Amino acid sequence: RHCQHLRLLEKHCSVPSLDQCIGNTSAKMSEDQVNEPEQSSLAKDCTKRHTSSPLEPTKCYCLKKQVTGFIWAVCRSVVPIKLLGTPNWRVLQANISKLVNLRRFEKFSLKQAMRNVKLSQYPLLSDECSALLKQKVLEGWIFWLFSSFIMPLVQANFYVTETQHEKNEVFYYRKSTWANIISEAVTSLRDQGYQESDVTSVREIMKNRLFGFSRVRFCPKERGVRMLANLKAPVRLPVSLPLQSRGLRKVCFGRHIKYVYYKPVNEVLKDWHLVLKHVVANKPEVLGSSVFNYNDVYRRLVPFLLLLKSHLSLKPGAFFFVADVKRAFDSVDQEKLLKVLDDLDLEDEYSLRKVFQVLCINKSLCNISSWTLKSKENVGCLTAHSLPGVLVNRQVQVRKVRKQLLISVLKEHIKRNVLQVGDQFFLQSVGIPQGSVLSPLLCSLYYGHLEKSVLFPFLEDACQPSPGFPSEECSDPKYMLLRFIDDFLFISTSKEQASRFFSRLKRGIRAYNCEMNDQKFGSNFVLGLCPDRLYVGDGTSFLRWSGLFINCSTLEIQADYTG
């Protein structure tokens, strides 16, 4: 049957222009409100959902009730009434609504699609058939309706995605709206140090390297979109000339187009990640104040807090502030990072071994194979009973990684990171790849070098007496600096030292292209700023830092579950 689905789409999910949507945009209206008339225009919903600032493009999503209304209107227009089962209309519409309202990672089963659908309400099914046969036919029809009609209808008309600020909630964007959002995001990429490149240039870059490139998608956030790069999946490029297979690439044919396939970036870089982890484990000073997990935080922070508690009776208190580097990964100076890597004094060669283990876990056996770095410390650790629960621990393969190849691959990864956005390619000229298995470690090395060169010497001199601060307040301060990748936490018993260090960070460090995010400062003392990361709960003030709450009065640490 003929269906004017575009007219129905415009009726139920119309999207005004951004100029028409200039309105208030702070609070999202609940979709569960009752006693309010249905609205067929998104312009009215946009005005009601937001109340304080100009509308962002990413706010022009379609409400789930609008999407449900569109799907049901198309079903009514296309599907014969007898197949919908007239008395079951409300039931089917309710089940479609449940499908549309699913959150990310939730599943929708045939049983849910069949909920409250009564076999007796389908007169089309012959009474001569057995009840079991009629049930099978009805299940087949409902399965087809949801999987082969409704789902393709949604995919053809909407871009469905999660957002950064709503976690697992799913949002529906009209394809035309999403195209405008992506167009603006791509334009901003060019202003952020990404150079557009053509397929021929990308093919030249790929010709002699071991790994591929990253594919990018955009995730809406409260203001604008965030770029998410996927470096875990294999990628392909169309080729116009035959390329020889080198074991790392596979040439395939599909729909008369010849493609060359490349291994995922992160899969190839695993070896280099192992080597770098080994190097920094032997030279922890190159990481500065870096911590990588909450175990590291506990080992570093708890002894210092215990020391503070023993001195609080003699001191005026502890002064905390937190700071976050603005666009930390995208602002890294590539040349300076390569110099930092050159200063690591790498060995000429590293040996990697693949170890096969059979483990006994909960009275069941499982096989695990992994690559580890072969060193003098662990060369004798291959006995089967050296680890609890390990039945077999056997080395099955060894390979070498030479220093020259290591430096070459790291330079290629940092200097020539290629991103694919739709059909366009971009070369990153500033910063390091986000989503790379190496990026957290490279970022920590970079800012560790910054601390060693700039911040630590400054802290040593930051507590000299000055006008307005008594000398006794600055004598022999106890302080600690921690950094979770790009998130700083500073604690000191000297307000003068904390104030000076805050001012130094706020100015930025131009030599490292490092600038702090003014919206993410927080402190427990007056610094002339609006603390975005100060949380007050049950009358107690906490400072947010990397998923933790710090009670600046009692020095207690709690997990931040506020989202």
The CATH architecture assignment of the domain at 280-332 and 437-463 and 476-559 turns out to be 2-Layer Sandwich
Instruction: Report the portion of residues in β strands.
Output: 15-25%
Distance between the termini: 48 Å
> Which value, in Å, is the CA radius of gyration?
30 Å
Shape: globular
Helicity, in percent?
A: 25-40%
What is the β-strand count? 21
EC number: 2.7.7.49
Region (Disordered): 29-54
InterPro entries: DNA/RNA_pol_sf, RT_dom, Telomerase_RBD, Telomerase_RT
Catalytic activity: DNA(n) + a 2'-deoxyribonucleoside 5'-triphosphate = DNA(n+1) + diphosphate
Structural features, described:
Among the domains are: 1-16 and 53-176, Topoisomerase I, Chain A, domain 4 (Orthogonal Bundle); 280-332 and 437-463 and 476-559, Alpha-Beta Plaits. Residues 18-55, 241-248 and 379-385 have low confidence and may be disordered. With 563 residues, the chain is α+β, with helices and mostly antiparallel strands. The strands form six sheets. A five-stranded mixed sheet has the order 3-14-13-4-5. It has a four-stranded antiparallel sheet with strand order 15-16-9-17, with helices on both faces. 35% of the residues lie in helices and 22% in strands. The protein starts with a helix and ends with a strand. The chain has helices spanning 5-13, 42-49, 64-78, 81-84, 89-100, 110-113, 131-157, 175-190, 199-207, 265-268, 270-282, 294-311, 334-342, 403-415, 439-461, 495-507; strands spanning 158-162, 170-174, 194-197, 214-220, 225-230, 235-238, 250-254, 257-262, 319-324, 349-361, 364-374, 390-402, 417-421, 424-428, 479-484, 487-492, 522-523, 534-537, 540-545, 548-551, 557-559. The chain has 16 helices and 21 strands. Strand 1 (158-162) and strand 2 form a beta hairpin.
